[in-house]
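Recall that a protein's primary structure is simply its ordered list of amino acids. Everything else, from secondary elements to tertiary packing, is in principle encoded there. The following example makes that idea concrete.
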Amino acid sequence: MSRLQTIFVPDWHGAGPGHWQRLWADQQPDALRLVREDETVPRRDDWLAALEALVLSSDAPVLLVAHGLGCIAVAHLPAAAAARIHGALLVAPSDPERRAQLSSFAPVPYAPLPYRSVLVASSNDPACPVRLAGAYGRAWGSEFVRMQNAGHVDTDSGHGAWPLGQALFQSFTQDTPGEAPSSATAPRASSFIAEPSAHP
């Protein structure tokens, strides 16, 4: 992990005690976490400014670990920040068109991400229909992991340390950081991976 800078991008309600993001971050003293105030109406411009600043401040290639609305924020990052990213684990993306409070994050970008990404979605996530999450994955060129009846993949759905997620996270750390592929060479087809109901 010495060659990568991990940045955790939480959902709009944050990641409380026991959340897998918080547990993973506690195991990585050098990791950074995007910290937002408890916002009733999250503002995209504020999120992007804070996240872009974190990415651009890193001296090492960045590994993003995003949850919920954080996934949508990652997709909105401008090219200068995206070029510094080694990979992204995107878990249970939100649909900003389903909640008026999240409307500033709409429309969701449907351009390929210029780095490796894995998108994890649940068949019964209240924040986003799994078919829509699959559409995000195809548009972004993400490897797609479908979880069965895993809710929003958070503490409410019984996901604490979440071993499957840790394995996916580790798959990024085994890659050798290098120049991010251009959008022309970024993967465009999703790889659908069946995964049984996952509660730690």
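The two ends are 24 Å apart (CA to CA). The helical segments are 20-26, 44-57, 69-75, 79-82, 130-140, 163-173.
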